[in-house]
Queue: 2 jobs
Job 1
Amino acid sequence: MKALVRPARGLKGRISVPGDKSISHRSVMLGALGDGDTKVRGFLPGGDPLATVSAVRGIGIEVEQASQTELVVHGKGLHGLSEPEDVLNCVNSGTTARLMAGILAGQDFFSVLTGSPQLRRRPMGRIADPLRRMGADIDGRGRSGYLPLSIRGGHLRAIEYDQPVASAQVKSAILLAGLFADGETIVRQPGPSRDHTERMLKAMGVDVRTEGLVVRLSPPQGKLAPLEMTIPGDASSAAFPLVAAILVPGSEVVIENVGVNPTRTGLLDVLKAMGASFRLDGERESGGEPVADLAVEHSEMCAGFVSGDTVVRMIDEFPILAVAATQAIGTTEVRDAQELRVKETDRIAAVAEELGKMGAEIEELPDGFKVHGPSELHGAVVDSRGDHRLAMALTVAGLIASGETTVLGADCASDSFPGFFETLRALGADVELV
Ligand code: S3P
């Protein structure tokens, strides 16, 4: 399906965004390992977390969906999973594939993970290598570099692992395998990747300790306590209406109940430094995560510079940052972000080429990009390339472009943000999915 987007005049209103994608995945996977029923509210019913529900069902766990956003995961404990009868299809979801691999590495049975053509192009050696070092028997396409991967695990050794790249998916895979290892697992991170796995495992009673960038996990002696949790709104989804309101003159928007875990708020820091006007109201805790309401209004911005740890803290926000930077005065530069090349698409090339069709001046760098702003965007036919975040970033660009913008393949927005187009319409935007 394609989105037809026309220039917006002043976005106004109070909205909320769907539940956090990373936490939704983990609620189901960790719930499966808990001893009893994990009750989840605010679950994200998007394509990616639903792939996790189906994978977890495949290893013998009953997941009841009381409504779109309410789940009960009937956990069977650390040793209650069973051999799947068929391959486990992770569809487009890298988090499903990589975290499930960590759990499956701890199981003394045979399983196969696969996914869509898009996911089968994404690197899996980064989890296969450490899990193999822990003793799991893993094989796969391209010497286990790519899905499909076959896994036969059990009897794992604890390892100390220095991560070559900052990745919460890899860290989580090793920690989840560490639940089944014979001693303390230690992961050293090169940067502060999201810590939802550590927070949730701790809430379930697991001994996980973080000191700076080092995480240590001791395998549990007893059972894992099931959780009752309310998942906050996804900061990465909130980024789209947030930037839309900053860019469209006359806008005033409140986004309620957004997760503001410091490992996820790099974009807020960067936009603030560029001069964007927003504030966090009513900061509070919900389900072990910090949450706030984001009140934002239209603002003029200057160029920004992003590198190092901030890149890790906003790894999914670069397509929308690039859109914001097209309207900032000066050259915005992003460095140390080579990981963007192995996301749902090569996001450096895709952002430069697709926004370029609308008149943006974006220079590709091996590890990032430069956006020369401000530029007047014009409507064009652009392509999401099957990447949900590109689809949403291009739609926001369409709101500030002259004429009509057509975003091809826009329906993939529902991988992480079902209701994205309706949410923009509720703020007064002229967008339709046809
Ligand atoms: C995620 C971690 C990030 C992020 C992805 C979700 C997670 O990937 O891009 O959307 O839930 O752990 P990496 O950890 O591989 O950078």
Job 2
Amino acid sequence: MSDIVLCKREKEPIILGIESSCDETAAAVIRGRKLLSDEIISSAPTQALYGGVVPEIASRAHTDAIDEVVDRAISHAGIKKEDLGAVAVTYGAGLLGALLVGLSFAKGLAYGLEIPLIGVDHIRGHLAAAYLEDEDLKPPFVTLLASGGHTAILFAKTETEFEVLGSTLDDAAGEAFDKVARVLSLPYPGGPQVEALAREGKPTVPLPVMLKGEGGYHFSYSGLKTAVINYVHNKEQKREEWSRADVACSFQHAALDILVKKTAEAARETGVGTVTAGGGVIANGYLREALTEMCAREGLKLVLPAKKHCTDNAAMIASEGLLRYRAGLFSPLSLNAEAYIPLS
Ligand code: KG4
Ligand code: ZN
């Protein structure tokens, strides 16, 4: 069972991607970089009742959904299982019970069909989402990664190798959005809720600017988060009027402007002509506009994944699967799930 299934590598293989690291059960099929199908069943509405992801509920939901989501991805792609050239699956990082549902399913398929298994690091999947957007995208480029667990600026050297130029020293950007959402009594998931509320506000609340000049390409979100919490508690204790929308808007500016500024600096310093981005926070409309404006100003090409490919999905896993397939990076059937994978 532990042998790597090798194959005659095709130029435009049909790859099934499977994602089950958190609360989305997803499957997608690509042929080369062309997306043929993109399916998702989410347990987020159930998780919202508990104010966050409950691992046991996520695992059970994946078990219920995986068969249907994969069947849908294969039939909507207009192919048969036998047409698949490889199965790419998230093996980490994430909730172990959740990951094991997708990983075991993928192993069964790869074994039964005698096609290669490609284990994908979820974060590399987020970074590979941009390749679905632009057939001609080629390294080197600078990437802004902003998700629930990571905030970093990376230099992509090749399709499978990148260098971390800087990352968060404490909380991730998405995590800060989720915590601020809680302080503002917004439901889970927090990021999109804060964005919606921010649209009704003005950036008038004074908040600290994080590591503006110093810190290289590093970020720090815990001071900003604490400043928001202190501001709200202070106002409530003194029974003073305050605007939730203005807090959301001010926080959004403080949290995201710095990402754009440091991405511009990284592009300038490395001399690349292209910038990409990935991760749930990149779905934020204010950030997308700010990145678009910055790249236009700096004369950079910007490749942003579609919003639905910024948050968790399987198309990005299939996309990373293709990069690894082309590099011959296949996985043994003994591959295990990993709760944590360092950014490297
Ligand atoms: O990449 P992702 O879907 O999951 C991880 O791999 O972490 O990112 C989820 C994070 C959450 O913290 C969520 O609040 C944030 O991305 N997020 C957003 C938006 N949509 C999702 N943050 C700000 N604005 C959004 N529109
Ligand atoms: Zn993710």
